[in-house]
């Protein structure tokens, strides 16, 4: 099923011609959203965040992320690639190549949103730098800048925040490097100037404010998995049948849905199973969570 703007209720503010055309342009590549799913508002998306570098509260990123200098910005791409180097955001995601993607975001904490991202398929970036045949994984790192990121001045986590994907997951057409949302440049609290978005995985895989991308032949260390391996796996595919040790993953709370809306059922692979399930064929997803 193709996604069009009629599948969601767009925020009036955003329904300008440019955004509308961008939305139509990506229809063929975009996943299905159930008709009537409501797009979260810009306010919701930018005021309820996880970005632990700025504090552990949901409004800390909105309050403090303004301090982060996002221009100039370089992403160092290295490891098993033919053309390693420092790339600007404009190199990686030229404005004329940026697409709109409306995706569900399902946090491991069991809340969710629907977000209209702007971005570029990660595969297009990897193709341009030339992935060598021995590469099996892609590792990502967030900027390390304690002078601008208050929580990095404390050893509450092993900074910088790190994440990784298997190469086939990284090359999947749903996986994007996002540079904006709601037709605007990425707000700092959402991971400016460039972040990963992997819609069928728990939100913690979608690492923000990336400065390093490294192709490797061994599975890279990931922040949450390293910190608490019994709770956070390498794959972190959204899976209503595999509970977090401390809470159920069967349902989720849609941010902004209102008190009377109740919780909604969590979908396998966050509803993207028809596009991604084959990558995990034969795997035991209770063991490889
Ligand atoms: N990236 C970094 N660098 N630091 C973080 O704390 N939090 C993750 C992910 N990326 C996080 C991060 C989690 S837990 C989620 S749910 C999403 O970002 C939230 O993205 P959003 O705030 O744009 O909705």
Features:
alpha+beta; 7-stranded mixed beta sheet; disordered N terminus
**Biggest beta sheet summary:** 7 strands, mixed
CATH architecture: Alpha-Beta Complex
CATH topology name = Sulfite Oxidase, Chain A, domain 2
How much of the sequence is in beta strands?
Answer: 15-25%
Strand and helix map with partners:
Layout: E1 8-9, H1 17-25, E2 37-38, H2 42-47, H3 60-64, E3 74-79, E4 85-88, H4 89-92, E5 99-106, E6 111-121, H5 122-129, E7 137-142, E8 162-166, H6 167-171, E9 176-181, E10 184-185, E11 195-197, E12 210-216, H7 223-227, E13 251-254, E14 264-265, H8 273-276
Parallel strand pairs: 1-2, 3-12, 6-13
Antiparallel strand pairs: 3-4, 5-6, 6-9, 7-8, 7-12, 9-10, 9-11, 13-14
The protein binds ligand MTE.
If you had to describe this structure to a student in words, what would you say it looks like?
The protein is α+β, with helices and mostly antiparallel strands. The chain has helices at residues 17-25, 42-47, 60-64, 89-92, 122-129, 167-171, 223-227, 273-276, and strands at residues 8-9, 37-38, 74-79, 85-88, 99-106, 111-121, 137-142, 162-166, 176-181, 184-185, 195-197, 210-216, 251-254, 264-265. It has one domain: Sulfite Oxidase, Chain A, domain 2 (Alpha-Beta Complex). The strands form three sheets. Strands 5, 6, 9, 10, 11, 13 and 14 form a seven-stranded mixed β-sheet that branches. A five-stranded mixed β-sheet has the order 4-3-12-7-8. Strand 5 and strand 6 (111-121) form a beta hairpin. The two termini are 28 Å apart. The model is unreliable at 1-6 and 12-31 (pLDDT under 50). The structure holds ligand MTE.
